[in-house]
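Hey all, sorry for the wall of text incoming. These are the two entities for the joint prediction.
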Amino acid sequence: NAGVTQTPKFQVLKTGQSMTLQCAQDMNHEYMSWYRQDPGMGLRLIHYSVGAGITDQGEVPNGYNVSRSTTEDFPLRLLSAAPSQTSVYFCASSSRAGNQPQHFGDGTRLSIL
Amino acid sequence: GDSVTQMEGPVTLSEEAFLTINCTYTATGYPSLFWYVQYPGEGLQLLLKATKADDKGSNKGFEATYRKETTSFHLEKGSVQVSDSAVYFCALTANTGNQFYFGTGTSLTVIP
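and here's what came out:
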């Protein structure tokens, strides 16, 4: 019963490097999303997807790209890492049916030097 | 637009004290409401939910009642334990289920 799996759990990057944060879910959920969590700011939505082939921007999309080629996977790409992107990143998924909660991964702790 | 406002922390309580964390919301229509808990170093876990007015969600001794007249979903527990130390998030989703809105989180520390 894996749920939502995020990899890696920790990552250190240098400014300007690129990388992809992986997210996979095995619950056949249509809706997937990426959040970043910073001290004192709660969760902020970066991008979300309501199904394969459909993505949209959230509150803080700049500097991040996403794609959704399958129902299961929703990777988040940092194109050119900046220190301001140092954060904890959470992926979540849910059924599109109303009233259903989001299921979260354990997070990726990312530091940009 | 839809939003959630929750009580700012941090909150520090002695073991066996009564806990209330306030949460109010703004939403069109009839949202579903949730409380999530985040333990140190972990992701968010669903604690309880309520999907319509006057519903009471409960789990692990925590309770919250969906009050449409006051647009509130306050979290309560009668007797907290050290193991309840965590950050608590209030959240809502519209019935379309397309987006979730989270409060900023309330940090709770319970001391023996």
